[in-house]
């Protein structure tokens, strides 16, 4: 069944999952759209570009079994928080040393794995927060919102990159990640104290 997006924003579980998944997709989409431009700007060879993009794709998917284990062991919110922090570290690395080939490969791998953690954690949170009858509609609504925002981010990232390079793009991405990470972490601390 279809679930209106406005109803999702009133449900704390769905709101958190939507915020984390949307942030992960927007940051990754924005940084990865500009990544080849940045590499070209720093005179990277075609082989270097291929290695960096392959590392990113590997990060997105290769460690999914580990992410599933982490989800079972620590829960969805811990996995989402780990994903946001991993993406934040990767964003800082890309921003401070965009011309360092080794660091760039490592950062793009981390960016991909952080996205994986956010998406698996977000999906796990939705699965825990809704019954089977509502789950598919909720996940469909979240996916539609996330991919719509990602398209906007991809289109906007080249303009931000043209205006200020990776410094501006990275700063915007980091600010978004911090804005979503801090409330999630604060809530987890409050709940651990009361629980």
Protein described:
- Helix 2 packs parallel to helix 5, helix 2 packs antiparallel against helix 6 and helix 5 packs across helix 7.
- The chain has seven helices and no strands.
- The chain has 195 residues and is mainly alpha-helical.
- Helix content is 89%, strand content 0%.
- The mean pLDDT is 84.
- It is globular.
- The longest helix has 63 residues.
What are the key terms here?
mainly alpha, 195 residues, globular, 7 helices
Structural class: mainly alpha
Count of distinct strands: 0
Note the gap between the termini: 35 Å
Helix amount: over 70%
**Shape summary:** globular
Give the uncertain stretches in residue-range form. none
Order of helices and strands: HHHHHHH
The average pLDDT value, as a whole number, equals 84
Beta-strand percentage range: under 5%
Whole-number radius of gyration? 17 Å
**Tally the helices: what do you get?**
7
Give a quick account of the main beta sheet: strands, pairing sense, barrel closure. none
Concise summary:
The protein is mainly α and 195 residues long. 89% of the residues lie in helices and 0% in strands. Helix 2 runs antiparallel to helix 6 and helix 3 packs parallel to helix 6.
List the helices and strands and how they pair.
Layout (H helix, E strand, L loop, with lengths): L4 H4 L3 H30 L4 H16 L2 H11 L1 H21 L4 H29 L2 H63 L1
Helix pairs in contact: 2-5, 2-6, 2-7, 3-6, 4-5, 4-6, 5-6, 5-7
């Amino acid at each position: 069944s279809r679930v209106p997006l406005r109803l999702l924003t009133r449900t704390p579980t769905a709101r958190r999952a939507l915020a984390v998944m949307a942030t992960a997709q927007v940051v990754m989409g924005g940084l990865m759209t500009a990544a080849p431009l940045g590499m070209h700007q720093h005179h990277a060879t075609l082989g270097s570009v291929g290695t960096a993009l392959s590392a990113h794709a590997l990060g997105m998917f290769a460690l999914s079994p580990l992410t599933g284990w982490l989800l079972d062991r620590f829960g969805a919110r811990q996995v989402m928080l780990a994903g946001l922090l991993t993406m934040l570290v990767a964003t800082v690395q890309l921003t401070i040393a965009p011309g360092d080939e080794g660091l760039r490969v490592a950062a793009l791998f981390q960016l991909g794995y952080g996205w994986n953690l956010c998406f698996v954690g977000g999906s796990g949170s939705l699965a825990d927060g809704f019954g089977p009858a509502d789950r598919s509609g909720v996940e469909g609504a979240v996916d539609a919102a996330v991919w719509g925002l990602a398209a906007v981010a991809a289109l906007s990232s080249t303009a931000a990159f043209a205006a200020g390079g990776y410094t501006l793009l990275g700063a915007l991405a980091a600010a978004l990640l911090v804005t979503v990470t801090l409330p999630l972490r604060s809530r987890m601390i409050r709940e651990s104290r009361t629980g």
